[in-house]
Specification:
homodimer; mainly beta; Jelly Rolls; 6-stranded antiparallel β-sheet; 4-stranded antiparallel β-sheet; 1 helix; lyase (chains A, B); L-ectoine synthase (chains A, B); EC 4.2.1.108 (chains A, B); Ectoine_synth (chains A, B); RmlC-like_jellyroll (chains A, B)
Chain lengths: 134, 134
């Protein structure tokens, strides 16, 4: 059993802020934990516009707080985001997230994020193999 | 992309209350979604004593609200649970959860729960194969 707290991982290498400062992601479970998924708390700042594309990962995002707009850039569909909304990127959809108020969400990635990925010029996380992965 | 809300799944077959009424689990992602994990919001009532054992699943639990006590029944270790605490059952540990105040947590299971499991006499979820699973 592993027990960790959000406070414990804050300001460690599990706590990542985007280069533009728009979002911050605290990864409490990563690929190195070898459980087949990673689990993150992500906050995105109010008034920002963020395009993401996880070409190699499925992601589920469940909003705890905040509201805004989600646009599926593959088909143009727009969804309202409020506390309790969950979106599941089961088709590697390119998407845009525009928080009206700061959003706080818990996110699950499969395969797990290793923590060493950076978004490339397309906003894509590469698939990084973790030697500790079982 | 799938978009759902906690409200939409409330009082559907994705919303399960334990036989003793101690806990309620809203499963927003299940095995049928075929993404390799399930994702649940679970509330456990204050003052209850709950023993769990997931012999076939890994589970990560991240507390959003509430506090209480977690006991690892395999080694007797006791952990305080507060908002922001995460526990990862990576070794199928038998464990006891005793909320002092109502706990609200987001939980990830691998392999995903199908939604048709019931806890058996040992508090174990059996491994149910989902024919829709990829």
């Amino acid at each position: 059993m592993i027990v960790r707290t959000t406070d414990e991982i804050t300001d460690t290498d599990r706590d990542v802020t985007s280069a533009d400062g728009n979002w911050r992601s605290k990864r409490i479970v990563l690929a190195g934990d070898a459980v087949g998924f990673s689990f993150h708390e992500t906050t995105i700042a109010a008034g920002t516009v963020n395009e993401f594309h996880y070409a190699h990962h499925v992601e589920a995002v469940w909003l705890i707080a905040g509201d805004g707009i989600l646009t599926d850039l593959d088909n143009g569909e727009v969804h309202q985001l409020r506390p309790g909304t969950m979106y599941l990127l089961d088709g590697h959809e390119r998407h845009r997230v525009e928080p009206v108020t700061e959003m706080r969400m818990l996110c699950v990635f499969n395969p797990p994020v290793t923590g060493r990925e950076v978004h490339d010029e397309h906003g894509v996380y590469p698939l990084v193999e973790d030697p500790s992965r079982v």
